[in-house]
Design goal:
263 residues; 5-stranded parallel β-sheet
Length: 263
């Protein structure tokens, strides 16, 4: 991507560039105690500089924490991100795999310090795994975060595995076990998609986009034709009846907390 940006022609300006910080980036055999901690101020700032160098750009649009690190004080995180913002190296910050209370805690402390707030959360979210509907989605709605779902096809399970179409990794032993354990459910799913005249993958993505808190799912097409087909997804409109049928096939957590577990 860095080489592509370096070709100029407005390439960088037409891209919303997002990257993450969390895991160690040390070269094998080189010990750096500042990199061994999952998140800390020095690591966040140094890894940002390294990302800028590799990507051959002078700023990152969305700099995300790949995971929560509850051992790193929030004020240390805010200081590092604010410094990068003041230096013009990042525009916004986001989280990934945060719980609802992590999002609330971070943004409340940011507000008290008049500092940068989270503007996005990247969570696993698909029809098979709807857990974030209980607390993460309400937190994101309250604080104005956009959700970027990862694994929107549940590792390919929702992509038409019974017919071996997009996302159907039937050769994978683990996937095959999942298919067999959910065959009846998947048959209902793929039959519904056939009635709609759309591919299972596109219906699964369209279902996500029907949630106004979702910004865009992270897609993983393997071919140009799959990408072109996925680009049709925003045009797919699912009726209220269809949404109810989908809820019957893939029930969620029962609504948002606390009503889904209390009166």
């Amino acid at each position: 991507m860095g080489r592509w940006f370096a070709q100029g022609g407005g390439r960088r300006e037409q891209v919303v560039l997002a990257t993450k910080v969390y895991n160690t980036m040390n070269k094998e055999g080189v010990r750096d105690p500042n990199d061994e901690r999952l998140l800390n101020a020095r690591k966040i700032m140094r890894n940002c500089d390294e990302s800028l160098r590799r990507l051959q750009t002078d700023y990152i649009d969305l700099y995300q924490m790949h995971h929560i690190d509850r051992n790193c004080p929030t004020d240390e995180l805010l200081q590092a991100f604010s410094t990068l913002y003041q230096q013009g190296k990042i525009r916004y910050i986001g989280s990934s795999n945060f719980a609802g209370w992590d999002i609330a805690t971070f943004n409340q402390e940011a507000r008290f310090r008049n500092s940068m707030r989270l503007i996005s959360e990247q969570s696993i979210y698909n029809l098979e795994n709807r857990m974030i509907e209980a607390e993460v989605i309400p937190a994101c709605r309250h604080f104005g975060l956009g959700i970027i779902p990862w694994s929107p096809l549940a590792g390919g399970l929702l992509g038409g595995v019974l017919k071996g179409v997009q996302g159907g990794r039937r050769g994978n032993e683990g996937m095959q076990k999942r298919i067999e354990s959910k065959r009846a459910q998947l048959q209902q799913w793929e039959d519904l998609c056939a009635e709609l005249g759309e591919s299972p993958a596109n219906v699964a993505l369209a279902w996500l986009l029907h949630n106004p808190v979702v910004t865009a799912p992270i897609i993983g097409p393997r071919t140009l034709s799959q990408l072109q087909d996925n680009l049709r997804v925003p045009e797919i409109k699912l009726s209220t009846e269809t949404m109810k049928r989908i809820d019957t096939i893939f029930p969620g957590p029962g609504g948002e907390a606390p009503l889904n577990y209390a009166w």
